[in-house]
Amino acid sequence: MKLKDFKKIVNTHKSGMAMISELYDLGFDLMEGKFQLSSIIDKQFDMSLSLVYTDTGIDWVTWFIYDSDYGTKQGITASDTGKAICYSVKSLWEYIEKHHTICE
Q1: Which of 16, 34, 72, 86 has the fewest beta carbons under 10 Å from its own?
Q2: If you write DSSP's letter for every residue of 14-36 in order, what string do you get?
Q3: Over the stretch 54-102, which tens digit does the pLDDT of each residue have?
Q4: Does the pTM of the predicted model rise above 0.70?
């Protein structure tokens, strides 16, 4: 997958989840209520990534989004043989492209 396409997918996910969070603040529960749109967004996101990346690659994307808060959370780091990895959308893409792409 090209970096620009990967960025679009990640940034679209981020925007969608931010909207759901804002609606939650207004009293609309779209995460755990009757209309769980957040899980649908996550499923579509995972399905699109699974066309290109292994399950481990998708796990890295999930870690980047939820554990490191899209690379913004202080003190949350990942490394591979002492080198920082997955600290930005670009570095995440570089890592999973190199190590977790599905070969056809």
Answers
A1: 34
A2: HHHHHHHHHHHHTT---SSSSS-
A3: 999 999 999 999 999 999 998 888 988 888 999 999 999 999 999 999 9
A4: yes
For the chain, give every domain's residue range.
3-99
Q: What angle, rounded to 10 degrees, do the helices at 89-99 and 3-25 form?
A: 130
As a whole number of angstroms, the distance between CA 56 and CA 5 comes to: 20
- Each as own residue / partner, the long-range contacts of residues 82-90 (CB below 8 Å, 24 or more positions apart, any chain) are 86/60, 89/6, 89/7, 89/10, 89/11, 89/64, 90/3, 90/7
What tokens were used for 32?
């755990």
Show the beta-strand stretches assigned E in the chain.
Answer: 78-80, 83-85
Side chain identity, residue 103: C
Question: At how many degrees (to 10) do helices 37-50 and 55-62 cross?
Answer: 140
